[in-house]
């Protein structure tokens, strides 16, 4: 089990080819590519949402460079996974349902900063069964293809390129100085920083398009 303070930003990727070229120029090393299936759990009275905390179960399977998973066997109910708890999100005015908030470029929040506790688990299906016995329910599911990079100039910085149903984003997590340095080197400025979760971005996307939110997954018309 690992506890830390998560400090990260997202950057929207408009020109993927240009970004990949810049990563190569900076000596970026591709270290892994995975397909993620994430499920958020809550109590029957939405207690976690009211407290602005997140309980997430993630499954990963290796992905080919083209973005298609090599096998979905690891997504079976008995597969291993990562359990994550995220502490209270920063308050956004009088909005008590954080999933309705929209934080993006130009927001006063420069970074997304939250307490994060992670634990690797051997059997995700068994844990889901335990959650059910405890009265917890899955309430939101989202998936993405993530390619992980290493930039030697910025030691300790997590550089993740995420293809999601609502667009492609670059996520930088680590020390603030490293985040700022890498973002600048990649051609971004502070005005481009997004201090929001994918949950928030998804609900904002649905609101702008006048679409009823569901799960943020590939292969459905409402997420295109």
Essential attributes:
alpha+beta, Hypothetical Protein Pfu-838710-001, globular, 5 helices, 224 residues
Quick summary:
The chain is an alpha+beta fold. It is 21% helix and 35% strand.
Structural features, described:
The chain has about 220 residues and is α+β, with helices and mostly antiparallel strands. The protein has one domain (about 1-224): Hypothetical Protein Pfu-838710-001 (Beta Barrel), CATH 2.40.320. Helix content is about 20%, strand content about 35%. It has 5 helices and 8 strands. It has an 8-stranded antiparallel barrel with strand order 1-5-4-3-2-6-7-8. A hairpin with a 7-residue loop joins strand 6 (about 135-150) and strand 7. It is globular, with a radius of gyration of 17 Å. The termini are far apart. The model is unreliable at about 65-75 and about 95-105 (pLDDT under 50).
Q: CATH H-level name... which superfamily?
A: Hypothetical Protein Pfu-838710-001
Mean pLDDT: 86
Instruction: Please bin the fraction of helical residues.
Output: 10-25%
CATH class: Mainly Beta
Would you identify the CATH architecture? Beta Barrel
CATH topology call: Hypothetical Protein Pfu-838710-001
What's the number of extended β-strand segments?
A: 8
Low-confidence stretches: 65-76, 93-107
Order of helices and strands: EHEHEEEHEEEHH
Distance between termini?
36 Å
Strand content: 25-35%
- Quickly give the structural class: alpha+beta
Strand order of the largest sheet: 1-5-4-3-2-6-7-8
When the domains are counted, the total is 1
Count of alpha and pi helical runs = 5
């Amino acid at each position: 089990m690992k506890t830390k303070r998560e400090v990260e930003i997202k950057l929207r990727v408009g020109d993927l080819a240009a970004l990949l070229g810049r990563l190569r120029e900076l000596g970026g090393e591709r270290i892994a590519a995975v397909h993620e299936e994430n499920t958020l759990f809550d109590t029957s009275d939405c207690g976690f949402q009211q407290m602005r905390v997140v309980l997430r179960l993630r499954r990963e399977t290796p992905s080919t460079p083209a973005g298609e998973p090599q096998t979905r066997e690891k997504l079976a109910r008995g597969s291993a996974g990562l359990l994550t708890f995220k502490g209270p999100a920063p308050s956004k005015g009088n909005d008590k349902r954080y999933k309705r908030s929209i934080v993006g470029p130009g927001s006063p929040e420069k970074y997304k900063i939250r307490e994060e506790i992670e634990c690797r688990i051997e059997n995700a299906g068994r844990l889901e069964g335990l959650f059910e016995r405890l009265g917890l329910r899955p309430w939101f599911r989202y998936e993405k293809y993530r390619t992980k990079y290493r930039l030697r100039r910025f030691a300790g910085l997590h550089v993740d390129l995420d293809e999601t149903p609502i667009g492609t984003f670059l996520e930088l997590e680590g020390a603030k100085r490293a985040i700022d340095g890498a973002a600048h080197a990649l051609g971004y400025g502070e005005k481009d920083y997004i201090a929001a979760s994918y949950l928030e971005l998804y609900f904002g996307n649905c609101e702008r398009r006048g679409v009823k939110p569901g799960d943020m997954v590939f292969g459905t018309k409402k997420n295109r």
